[in-house]
Every structure is written in structure tokens, then in C-alpha cells.
């Protein structure tokens, strides 16, 4: 039986090196092998290795200096989850496999009073399209988000399966709506019991709560959300 040989591209190399860093094979302060050795190890060109190393730079794991070996500076990936880019787009940029699980059926609901107290604009809407999801990268859950898209009352049927489709892409492709600005409120909290199992943490473990208002290029459509982020293995950036 012929043994199958893996043909490594920059994405596979980045994923393999990233796993070695985040699982402790390389510690903070360690140097990665030189580019020539990595080329031999993965049987690829130097350009392919350099693209892979740049991905680790983008993840916040290593630093590179011309003429020197790459150095590990962090053992947790820095993920810009809270930017105006969507989760799926950021996952692809960072070469991390994303997944999404719906935690409740999507439909029109009332925006919670907590968000109305934080963002006056939320009081202008009687209801909003509610989407509650657990989201992760590779095998690990990272966050739970409850999102409210206000101003889409005409959407009475055909709500997509947002475990399979990006919410931001849906807004852009079907309505021409793009996110243009974000207002965010951050709070460190003890993880509530009902979220602990879904996030894979102990009850009362420290997590990050982010309440957001995302303005769009359509003044009649505003996105509100509450996001609970696990930061054990990821550093959340904005």
C-alpha cells in the first residue's frame, strides 16, 4: 500500500506551526527553525514558508526580523473578533477553521432592556431579527453572541440558516447593507452558569462581555449584539 505524502502549502504549514506554539512545543522566547530547515521539513519553497510565517505574525504569535530567526512572543492567538469585519472573514484571514452553532431559532424578538439602556438608538425599534450563536475556531468554542438586526421588518420569511451563512454577508448580498462603524462597551464578568457549558469553562470563570452597536450604510438598519468571549487560549483584539 502506497503511503500518502502530504503536500504542504502555506496554510497547512501555518496551521501546523501555530498548533506547535499554542500547545507549548515552542515556548515564549523560543526561536522557530530557520527558513531553510522549514523548507526541507515541509518540502516547499522559501516563499511558501515566508507566507506561513507571516500568518503567525498576523496571529500575534511570532515576530520576524530580517536576517534573524522568527521568535515566539505569545502562546495565544490574537484574534480581532470585535472589529467591523465578520467572524468568518477574520477566520479565513488568520487561517483558522471557523464553525458556528445556532443556540436558538432565529426570528423577530424584542431588543433587551440592557442594550436599550446602553444605546439610545435601540429604543427606536420595537423588534429586531434575533440570532443566537456559539462560534469557534478549530475545535474550541470562543464566544457566544446574541445579535439583533433592527430595521428589517420586511423580512417576514426566508430567514437563512446562520450556522451556515455569514450574517454580514447576508446583509450585504441581499440588502446592500455594510457595517461602517462600531460602538462597544467592555466588561469583565464571571461566566453565568447557563453559558459555562456552551463555552467550555467553569461557572464563574472570568470572561469578557461586549455590548455592541454596529451602524450601517443604511440609517434605517442598525445591528446590536451582546458577545460573551472566552479568552483562555485567545487574546481578543478590536
Topology:
Elements: H1 10-22, H2 35-42, H3 46-58, E1 62-63, E2 71-72, E3 77-79, H4 87-93, E4 98-102, E5 107-109, H5 113-118, E6 128-137, E7 140-150, H6 167-175, E8 179-190, H7 193-199, E9 206-216, E10 222-229, E11 234-236
Parallel strand pairs: 3-11
Antiparallel strand pairs: 1-2, 4-6, 5-6, 6-7, 7-10, 8-9, 9-10
Helix pairs in contact: 1-3, 2-3
InterPro entries: Bact_HTH_transcr_reg, Chorismate_lyase_/UTRA_dom_sf, Tscrpt_reg_HTH_GntR, UTRA, WH-like_DNA-bd_sf, WH_DNA-bd_sf
Keywords: DNA-binding, Plasmid, Transcription, Transcription regulation
Protein name: GntR family transcriptional regulator
Structure notes:
Residues 7-76 form the HTH gntR-type domain. This is GntR family transcriptional regulator. By secondary structure, the protein is α+β, with helices and mostly antiparallel strands. The protein has 2 domains: 10-72, Arc Repressor Mutant, subunit A (Orthogonal Bundle), CATH 1.10.10.10; 77-236, Chorismate lyase (3-Layer(aba) Sandwich). The protein is built from 7 helices and 11 strands. Strands 4, 5, 6, 7, 8, 9 and 10 form a 7-stranded antiparallel β-sheet that branches.
Mean pLDDT: 85
Rg computed from alpha carbons, rounded to a whole number of angstroms: 20 Å
Can you tell me the CATH superfamily of the largest domain?
Chorismate lyase-like
User: What shape does the CA trace take?
Assistant: elongated
Highest-level CATH class of the largest domain: Alpha Beta
Keywords: DNA-binding, Plasmid, Transcription, Transcription regulation
Organism: Persicobacter psychrovividus
InterPro entries: Bact_HTH_transcr_reg, Chorismate_lyase_/UTRA_dom_sf, Tscrpt_reg_HTH_GntR, UTRA, WH-like_DNA-bd_sf, WH_DNA-bd_sf
Protein name: GntR family transcriptional regulator
Amino acid at each position: 500500500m502506497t503511503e500518502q505524502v502530504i503536500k504542504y502549502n502555506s496554510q497547512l504549514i501555518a496551521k501546523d506551526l501555530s498548533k506547535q506554539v499554542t500547545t507549548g512545543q515552542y515556548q515564549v522566547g523560543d526561536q522557530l527553525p530557520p527558513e531553510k530547515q522549514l523548507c526541507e521539513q515541509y518540502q516547499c519553497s522559501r516563499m511558501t514558508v515566508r507566507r506561513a510565517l507571516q500568518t503567525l505574525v498576523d496571529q500575534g504569535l511570532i515576530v520576524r526580523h530580517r536576517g534573524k530567526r522568527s521568535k515566539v512572543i505569545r502562546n495565544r492567538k490574537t484574534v480581532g473578533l470585535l472589529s467591523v469585519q465578520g467572524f468568518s472573514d477574520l477566520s479565513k484571514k488568520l487561517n483558522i477553521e471557523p464553525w458556528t452553532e445556532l443556540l436558538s431559532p432565529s426570528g423577530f424578538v424584542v431588543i433587551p432592556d440592557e442594550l436599550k439602556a446602553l444605546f439610545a438608538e435601540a429604543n427606536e425599534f420595537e423588534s429586531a431579527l434575533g440570532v443566537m450563536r456559539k462560534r469557534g475556531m478549530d475545535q474550541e468554542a470562543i464566544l457566544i453572541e446574541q445579535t439583533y438586526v433592527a430595521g428589517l421588518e420586511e423580512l417576514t420569511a426566508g430567514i437563512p440558516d446562520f450556522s451556515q451563512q455569514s450574517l454580514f454577508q447576508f446583509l450585504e448580498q441581499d440588502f446592500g447593507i455594510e457595517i461602517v462603524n462600531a460602538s462597544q462597551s467592555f466588561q469583565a464578568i464571571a461566566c453565568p452558569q447557563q453559558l459555562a457549558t456552551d463555552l467550555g469553562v467553569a461557572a464563574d470563570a472570568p470572561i469578557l462581555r461586549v455590548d455592541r452597536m454596529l451602524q450601517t450604510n443604511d440609517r434605517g438598519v442598525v445591528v446590536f449584539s451582546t458577545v460573551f468571549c472566552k479568552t483562555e487560549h485567545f487574546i481578543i483584539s478590536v
